[in-house]
Amino acid sequence: MVRVKICGITRLEDALAAVNFGVDALGFVFATSPRQVAPETVQAIVSQLPPFVTTVGVFVNEKVSRIEELRSFCRFDLVQLHGDETEEMAAQLGPRVIKAVRVRSDAPADVQRYGKATLLLDAYSPGAAGGAGKTFDWGVAVAVAKKRPIVLAGGLTPENVAQAIETVRPYGVDVSSGVEIGPGRKGHAKIEHFIRAAKTVARSS
């Protein structure tokens, strides 16, 4: 079964809607972004989630000490690194780390790097830590997914997530802007459609 992560959560009502529709993980962005959320808000949301929902803190080029401080305060489960972090830094944060790799069409992802982390493949967008809602050549992701489990991100929507899963066969999919009605505000109907599409194709595969 493909896991589904909704990232860029800023409101409790959006988090609870995603949980109600069967989400596996929720992401909270601590880096500068239209979806940046205060640690106090993350702590409050995480404290009201039911068991078995994985929570993820998303960082860009942050110090290890600050990440650990926020992990302790907010009590999220996993760390996602979305910047230029080294393999050594990822290893310092322990085994429960997701490392985002921005894929350029002319430079396939290196499947050997960050061996102890889970890779998240995202589109490359100049000047942005994330893919800015863009897709990339899924053929690159197919090649990497044959070597190790990956999370697929970048331009996923309720309309294309089923095709993405059928093509790439990822461990999980990650969406943010594709289910939004405004920066940091999720559309609950879009969340439901996305999760249903992802889980339906996963069951039929």
Concise synopsis of the structure shown:
This protein is α/β, with parallel strands linked by helices and 205 residues long. The protein contains seven helices and ten strands.
Structure in words:
This protein is of the alpha/beta class. The protein has one domain: TIM Barrel. Helices cover 33% and strands 21% of the residues. The chain has seven helices and ten strands. The strands form two sheets. An eight-stranded parallel barrel has the order 1-2-3-4-5-6-7-8, surrounded by four helices. It is globular and about 40 Å long. The model has no long low-confidence stretch (mean pLDDT 92).
Summary tags:
alpha/beta, TIM Barrel
Question: Could you list the spans in which at least 5 consecutive residues all have pLDDT below 50?
Answer: none
CATH superfamily: Aldolase class I
Largest β sheet strand count, sense and barrel closure? 8 strands, parallel, barrel
Number of helices: 7
At the first level of CATH, the class is Alpha Beta
- Global morphology: globular
Please give the order of strands in the largest beta sheet. 1-2-3-4-5-6-7-8
CATH topology: TIM Barrel
Mean pLDDT: 92
